[in-house]
Structure formats: structure tokens, C-alpha cells
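USER: Please consider what follows.
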Amino acid sequence: MPKRKTTSCWSMAVIACLLFVAATHLRGAQAAAVMSVDLGSEWMKVGIVSPGVPMEIALNRESKRKTPVTLSFRNGVRSFGEDAVTDGIKEPASAYSYLLDLLGKQIDNPIVDLYRKRFPYYNIIADPERNTVIFKKSDTEEFSVEELIAQILVKAKEFAQEATNQPITECVITVPGYFGQAEREALLTSAQLANLKVLQLINDYTAVALNYGVFHPSGINETAQYYVFYDMGASHTSSAVVSYQLVKDKHTKETHPVVQVLGVGYDRTLGGLEIQLRLRDYLAAEFNALKKTTTDVTKSPKALAKLFKEAGRLKNVLSANNDHYAQIENLIEDQDFKLQVTREKLEEICSDLWPRVIKPLEQALSTSGLSLDVISQVILFGGGTRVPKVQETLKQYIKQELGKSLNADEAAAIGAVYKAADLATGFKVKKFIVKDAVLYPIQVTFERDPGEGAEVRQVKRVLFGLMNSYPQKKVITFNKHTEDFDFFVHYGDLNHLSAEEQSYVGSLKISRVELQKIKELLEKTKNESVDAKGIKAFFTLDDSALFRCTGVEYVYEKQKIETEEDDEGTLAKLGSTISKLFSKDKEEDKKEEGSQDGNENATEGEEATGGKDEEKSKEQEKNETKPTEGEAPKKNETIKIVTVKEPVAHSLTVQFTQPLSGKSYEKAAEKLNAINKAENLRNQLESSFNALESHIIDIQQKLEEEEYSSCATKEEKEKILAECSAASDWLYEDIENPTPEMYENKLKALKKLTDVFMARHWEHEERPEALKALSKMIEGAEGFLKSAKNLTKETNPEKDVFTQVEIDTLSKVISDTVEWQKTEVQAQDKLKRYENVRLTIKEITNKMSTLDREVKYLVTKINLWKPKVKPTKKDKKKAKKDGEEKKTEEGGEQEEGSSSGDGDAEKVTTEQSGDDTNKEEQVEIPVTEKKTEGEEEAEEKQEVPVATPTEDHTPRSDL
């Protein structure tokens, strides 16, 4: 028992340490800001949230709320946003944009062919290892799509950090809902290259639905409300049917709002970009028709880039106007171009696009199983929905008004940053449960040999069906295999998609899992009395829609004889408790939906379940089996059924487009670090150059003004101007390998020379205000002194706050300060502005500090002063009668005739005699403030009972 008690104390200490570490971690993380990135094909919006600051959109360097997703490399300089767009006009092949749909794509994907057709001036080659897209700029410069996206995310992080003044390492990124495993993994790799931890990849329509639910909670109740969110962005169009409902949690009994995606439809090639390209090609055809040159304008990359930019401007203007002029100076060969374009003409050249507008909405309603009758509202977001023809087409289909209550540009970014705050440590937000839906079903395929010469059969099991909600976990059980085998994970039935869309999806394979040493594992337990439950593979589809095979186990049950002495030790129990606190069994929280999938061919032994085996094993562990007949059970022995889980050795091979990894990833990281380092150095170089240049120009201008030049001697002025001229000449020389330190040192030397006359000018400019402040302080001190003289013992005995020494001291400080001010001002006025300053601001402030200190001392004293209290006549009579003296409350001095030998006077009023019959009432006489003579006489007439101890029971020493 003593040993067990000691162990228990030690285990409690371990738990305390664990809790302390966890609490320390939480406290340390509470100050971190997080961000969201609404990463579109054309624009990027960055949402931010930090402790004490509400959710907001971070501004870029131009103080705008959205930034073009474009970056360029020109003349060794990397540019972003508007600067990169400008570079793209001068050198189109050096500026990269509309990259999002190229993530995770093989070079032979139709999307890559479409990109080449839209932007023919890029040199796109295949990655020799992964067969993905590589932009080749020159023989020495080439970039993968992941590298380019990573640099854009670096810029997004910079915007967020500048807005919050905090380092940011965590984010939530929006993605199109049709992104598969390859695209999502590629985006995660880009974020990793940007040193960002992705808390979640959230579908853009889901982020908008979350935004709407958070900021419009009044309509959410126990009855499901259905909405459609329709998005037309730059490159794609999507539609999502969602439901809002208050749902009660079975475990916590708390009620939370839930947004669930019920149906999704999309068109990945329909968007504002396609309309802009139609306009570009129309303008090019019209210019060629004018025959101003013999050169086809579409063959000139620079001219094509100019037409593309003007088409984008024209599209936006025609959304609000019926007609507008397209104007381009020097389009090609010094030829200008001007053409009037009407909205009607725009709608005509895009006539084949308008019927496609309603297809995503129809698809979303179809997959959700709902009709327009139950839809509360169709809500728009995305820049493309501003096109009048798009809105007109939708209104004709739904026959009701469109919802326009959301900010079409920023809704997704704000919804995503709300999710980031929910997932990050250190923030507490209102719980809003989000359930997204599977767009591409995922299934497992494996082969089984029935034996007896029968043909090997291929078996398929659906893990996550179309529109199944996620995040979710599934388990599949193999109980017919006795040898090593493998199974394949891939996309399931995609018949709900068009043939063209299926080609865009690319490879349908996800992964191959090879199980090893199965025979050895089975033989290991063959001699034991076991009940095999099969080989179980565990899968998850997390909240980023990323598929994972989390583990494979061989599960069996066996009998175990236990006695009372086999109880688990305290440390073992502690380990079990901590394990249960920080982890969940892989088979928990599975849904019945999974078990329905697994009921197919159940007689053959394989099934996909939501994970109910754990409950069964727990029940069996509780059951105690009786010993067989003829056996006499030993004393205090029981036989229990225990479940044993043995890990199965396995290897996993990714079969979709491989993300950057290994040496390729390390090479990309080194390249990005070198680019970032070079850019930082260039920024420092530009900053130090600009600082030196600005200082030279500023000093030269100031020395031309009388106000400043009068503060320098003729010799100083000539020397400064000569140094500025020399520095200016040096600044614009062709310096080889300049460094920021070179400019900073030059600026430091020049400032040392110019600070002399600049300091004199500052003294002359600031002195009048300083003297004015000193005069006001003297005036105030003199007024205070006049009042203080009436609070001395000589002038006012009842209010003797100050001593005469204190009054004299303040008076002397004031007179000295006045005399000093008069003398110094007269002396300073006799000096020229270029001469050394005699009356400095520092000396003035020192005098003000001395005067302020003396006044504050007296002010503090009067605030703390209280009138002295004299004892009343009644106090004196009582003191005389009791043979003792009272101390006055304020003075604390003993009066004449007092004696401490008779004990503590307080005991007279607190102790009682031993005999209650002889006890008299004890009364304390309070010390009062000074009263008038009438009040004193009235009190003397009152009879006050006095405590008189009896001689028989009260010791004299207590009196």
C-alpha cells in the first residue's frame, strides 16, 4: 500500500506537468494572427484576424483590397500585382497569370492545351520527372506552377503581416470545389514552400455559405432553410445548394447552427476570362480588317497583351454602360486603334456562352434532389455575376429576384478567415458546423481468388459516395485473404459529369496500397485460440477533402485468464487514461452510411463500414465466459475475451500527379529563398539609395532659403554644398556591386555635417514655444505661492499646511527662474542665428522641471493634509476617572500623567468579568472632531455609563 500511494503521487505529478505544458502552449499561442487567402485565377483577396482586431481585408502596397494574381520576372527583378501586369504589356512572356487551373495537371491535360491556345506567347514544357507544366523563360530560368503560386502566397503573407504588425504562419486557402486530390496536394506544396501552415483548404462556395450564415443568423432555426450560392469568377462558374439548420449535439446537448452542402454544379471553363478573350479576339479581327499594317496583330505577343488588357477594361465598362470606345495607342507598328463597342455586340459574340450559365445551377439542384420551389433565394457572388446578361439569364430561369446582399469580391475571403479563427489557437468564435460534399466518389478495388480453380474476381467497394458529407472516416474489412495482396483507391462513377469534364479531371487513380507479411502474421496466431475479425484498413476524408489511408490492422479476439493480482498498475492506468484523453480510436464516429456501402457481397467477407467493431469488442470484453465442464476454476480467476490489434506492414504509392518532393522540392525551396533574398537586398538598396538622394536634395533646397541658410556660417554653407555636390555625383556614377551599407555610410557622414545648422534652426524655431510654456508655468507657480502663504502656522494656526521654510524655498525657485529667463533671453537675442546657441531648449525644460518639482511637492502635501483633532472635555473626564490617559487620534503622543503599567487600556472595553451578574455595559468613547462650545456643553449633560470592573472577579493587572 505505501508503494502504491507513492506511485499515485508520482502519476499525479506527471499529469500536472502535462497540463502545465499544454496551458503554457496555449498562452504562448494566443497572440498569433491568422489569415485567409481567396486565391482566384485573376484576383487575390487576403483576410486577416488578430486578437482584439475584427476580421478585415488586408490592403496591398497600393492600399487596394484586391491584387492581381500576376507575377513577372524582367531584367532580374520580380514584380507582383499591378506592376507585374504592366510588365506583361512590355514583355508578355515574362508575366505569369491565370495559374490556378494548371496546378496538379499533366502536360497532356486538355486544360493545358486550352491555356496554350488562350496565351500563345508562353513557352510551356513538361517536367522531366513529373510530366507537369513548366514555364521556360530562358535557358537558365524556368518555373513550375507550384513555385509561382508559392511566390504569390509569400506576397499574400507580407500584406497580412504589414496589416497586423505580427508574424503570420497559419492560413486557410479557398479552392474551387472541383479540385481533386492532385490539385489540392499541389496547392499544399506551394503553401509549404511559402512557409505557411494550411489549417484547411475550403471550397470557395462553402466559404461564402459560411460567411452568409455567420452574418445572417436570424433566419436559421430548427427547420432547414435552403439557399443557392451562384458564383461566376474569372475562370470558372459554380453553383451550390446548401441548407441552414439548428442541430442539437447528441453528446453535449448544445444546439449549433449547421451549414451543409447538398448539391454542386460547375463549369470550369466558363467565366469572365472567356468573355474577355472573346472581346480580345473581336478587337483583333476588327483591327486586322482595317488593314493598317500587313502584320497580323494576333502574331505579335505585345499587341495581343495590349488587346487583352483593353478587352478587360471594356468588359467592365459595358457591364454598366450600353456602349464604349476601345482605345489603344501604338497597338502595333506605331498604329493606334479606336473602336466603338456596344453591349449588344458583346452579347452577340458571346451568344454561345449564355446557355451554359444555367447549367451549373441545374446540376446543383439535380445532385441535391431539390427543386427551385423550396429554395429561399439564389445569392450571387464573384465578379462575373455583374455582367447584365448573366443576371438576366438566371432571372429568367429561377423566375424570382436574385440575392445581392453579399460583397461579390470579398465574401469568400471573410468566410475563410472566420474558419481560420475557428481553427487557430487563441481565438474564440461562435461555433458554426460546416459539412461539405464529395464531388468525386472514391472507391476501393481489389482482387479476390475464390479458390477451387475459379476465376479471380475484381471487387469494388465505395468509400465516399457522391454528395456524401465530409470530413468523415471509413473502415473496410478484408477477411478472405491469407496471402499478401494489394488494393487500389480511385475515383468512382463519374457519369454525372460530361465527357469533356471527365477529361479535365485527368487520372482517376489515387493510390495503391500493398499489404505485406500477411501469412506470417496469421501463422503467428494460428496455434492460439483466437477468433479472427479480419484485416481492417482505415481511411479518412478530412475537412480539406484530402484522402488518406491512415493505417491497416489485423484484428482478432482471444481468451485471457485474469486474477485479482493481475490488476493494472497505476502507471499503466495512467498511460491508458492519457491515451484516451489525447486520441480517439480509429473506428469511432463512423456513419451508418459506410455500413450500407459494405453490405454488398457481405457473404464474401469484405465490407466497408463506419466502424462499429469497437463497440462490439467493448461489449465482448465485458462478458465473462464460464469454464468448460470438468474444469475447476481456480480461486479468483475469470476468463475474458480481449480484442488484439496487430499493425500490418504496408506501403502506399501515390498514383495521381506527384507533388513536388525530395530533391525537386529542395531545389525549388533553394530557388525561392534565393529570389526572396535578392528581392530583399534590392529593396534595401533602393531604400538606402532613395534616403541618400532625398537628403541631398533636401539640404540643397534648404540652404537656398533664408530661414535655414541664416543658421549656417558662410564657411559651413560652402562646405556643405560642396559635400552634397560630391555625394550627388558619386550617387549617379556607375558603381560596381553597390551595397546598402555604402549608401548608409555616405548618408551618415553627410548628416554629421548638416546636423549642425539643422540643430540651430530647430532651436530657433522651438524656443518661442518653450519660453511661452515656461512663462505660463511661472505664472501658475506664483498664483499657487500666493495661496500657499495663507496656509502657514503664522497666518492660519488652524490650517498650518506648510512651513515657512517650504514657502521660502518655492519663492526663491520662482524668483531665480524669472531672473534666469530674463538674463538668458537678453543674452540669446544678442547672438546671430548662425552662432552657437546659448539658450537651448534643454536648459528651458530643465528649469521647468525644477519649478514643477517644487510645486508638485507642495500640492501633494496639501492633498494629504488633515486637520489635527483635539480631545473633547468628555474624553478628559473619562481619562481622569479611570486613572489613565488617552492618546489623541492624530497626534499619537501620550498626555501628561499617563501610565503604561496598569495594562492596555483597550482591554477595559473588550474583556468581561467572570460573573455575569456583576457585569456592566462596556462603552467605547470615540474620538470626535472639534465641536462648538454649545455642542460640548450638551454632551457634558448626557450621562454615559462607564465600565467598572468588580473587585472580586477582575484582576488589577487587566485594568
Remarks:
- The mean pLDDT is 82.
- The first helix runs from residue 2 to 29.
- The two ends are 59 Å apart (CA to CA).
- The first strand starts at residue 34 and ends at 39.
